[in-house]
Specification:
Elements lengths: L11 H13 E15 L8 E13 L2 E13 L5 E15 L7 H30 L21 E3 L19 E2 L8
Parallel strand pairs: 2-5
Antiparallel strand pairs: 1-4, 2-3, 2-6, 3-4
């Protein structure tokens, strides 16, 4: 059973709905859906990583999934792009039969519990990808609960879309910086 991450800003009602939802939704799979990595020729050594995460979810009867689009840009001391990488991770939940997830609770769970589930996969992916690009490995720091509350989360609410996970982030981008700025290597 997945655990709820309480960031301290939940109303008692939302907390109860999120806890009830997690009693009926278990994390079934965390997977890498797509990725891309490019190293720029002639750039200097990377001195900073700019990391952005777009968070989305889909929740409908018998269906709950989170989508995390990570975008990382490595820049040198002259602010020139050294490498850019992107990866999409999907967190899929097994939902109890005939259960309809609460949209507000789904949004909170996506930005906390779902993010916590996807984070180690993203951390390992970007560390190994930078090494494969023959750059110093990018190592994400420890995840703190204070960093677990996104400003907003995009959702798709429909009756079983044909590809619900691919549609999990709506057309408007939702950006949330998650990494300390100026991370050094």
């Amino acid at each position: 059973m997945a655990r709820l991450i309480d960031t301290g800003d939940l109303s008692p009602d939302l907390l109860q709905r999120a806890l009830e939802m997690l009693k009926r939704c278990d994390i079934a799979n965390v997977r890498l859906s797509s990725f891309q990595a490019n190293r720029r020729d002639g750039a200097g050594d990377a001195v900073r990583a700019d990391v952005k995460v777009e968070i989305g979810y889909v929740a409908a009867e018998g269906l709950f999934a989170n989508k995390f689009d990570w975008n990382v840009g490595l820049v040198d001391e002259n602010e020139a792009l050294v490498a850019d990488m992107s990866a999409t991770f999907i967190v899929e939940y097994r939902v109890a039969e005939d259960f309809i997830p609460d949209q507000e609770a789904a949004g909170h769970i996506s930005g906390t519990t779902g993010y916590l589930a996807a984070y180690p996969y993203a951390r390992e992916f970007f560390e190994s990808t930078t090494a494969r690009l023959q750059l110093d490995p990018l190592v994400f720091g420890l995840l703190r609960l204070s960093d677990m509350n996104p400003r907003s989360v995009a959702s798709v609410t429909s009756d079983r879309p044909s590809d619900p996970v691919a549609q999990a982030v709506s057309s408007r981008d939702v950006e949330q910086e998650r990494t300390p700025t100026g991370q050094s290597f």
